[in-house]
Amino acid sequence: MKSTILDLLWRRMASALLTLLIVSFAIFFATSLLPGDVTEILLGQAATPEAVAGLRDAMHLNDPAIIQFLKWLGGLVIGDLGKSYSNNMPVADLIGGRLVNTLELGLVTALISVPLSLALGITAAINHGTVYDRAVSALTVGVISVPEFLIATTAQLVFAVYLKWLPALSLASDISSIGELLRIYTMPVITLIFVNSAQMIRMTRAAVIETLHTPYVEMARLKGASRGRIVFRHALPNTLGPIFNAIALSLSYLLGGVIIVETIFNYPGIAKLMVDAVSTRDLPLIQSCAMIFCVGYLVLVTVADIVAILSNPRLR
């Protein structure tokens, strides 16, 4: 039985590594198809053809695409992200501080959204069919229907322009006190909570409702077990796999929401750095930022799958 679990785990890890290899291939060649020439952007419109050709040779942009890909992939394996075209600095140095800012924003959002979503999803499932359940379901459907950029723009319009309670832009360097921290993070975090929580609430609710209708829960109910014992002793332990999947998928949606939120609120994170790099066609920087988002997504999904495997009673 233990070998079966180990085989499943190794298979899942191998699948994640293969997926990462395919994603790296797709990212490299997709960014290579971006319009414009980085050498012309760096040298300006007055650059001569000779200067452009010389810079392309110096940057090894005339090498075959597969050779460029293998060099880039080899650098990733040893932790070398290359050098930024537009800043002439190591990409790792540019990403370092920005990645910390994005992780801080994501962590604050997760610490609020995960407990809130689980509480709403579980209580809605326990009170299935009641007014409370319908209200939570209607709220989640309404939030899912609204794109995150509209939520962020509306929050700016209401709280920054009309009420003037919060700053329209969230600059992390301005933080000097707890009050300033709350003012700067409030709107980005609220926007991401709306984006992140709705799917988690729906998936948690569905998983718990399905478990509450299983034969062993019905048997516990017939034996006279209390409602709390039925939920916390029999139902919730058997929904750990689906709930972790719901958390992982919702947090992966958070990665996409961060790109829009950081751009709208001018938050100095890695997503904003990647958006700025697109305008200068800074390929090493774009590719590294995109790989970080892909690695984050794969880690979340892989961990959720591993938890689902380990929490499966039949495998244990």
Terminal Cα span = 7 Å
Query: Which secondary-structure class do the elements indicate?
Result: mainly alpha
By CATH, the topology is MetI-like fold
The backbone outline, from C-alpha atoms, is: flat
Number of domains: 1
Given as residue ranges, the uncertain stretches (5+ residues, pLDDT < 50) are none
Average pLDDT reading: 80
The CATH architecture is Orthogonal Bundle
How would the blueprint of this fold be written?
Elements: H1 2-32, H2 38-43, H3 49-58, H4 65-77, H5 91-126, H6 131-145, H7 148-162, H8 178-212, H9 215-222, H10 227-235, H11 240-264, H12 270-279, H13 283-310
Helix pairs in contact: 1-13, 5-6, 5-8, 5-11, 6-8, 7-8, 7-11, 8-11, 9-10, 11-12, 11-13, 12-13
Structure in words:
- The protein has one domain: MetI-like (MetI-like fold, Orthogonal Bundle), CATH 1.10.3720.
- The protein is 76% helix and 0% strand.
- The protein is built from 13 helices and no strands.
- It is flat.
- The termini are close together.
- The mean pLDDT is 80.
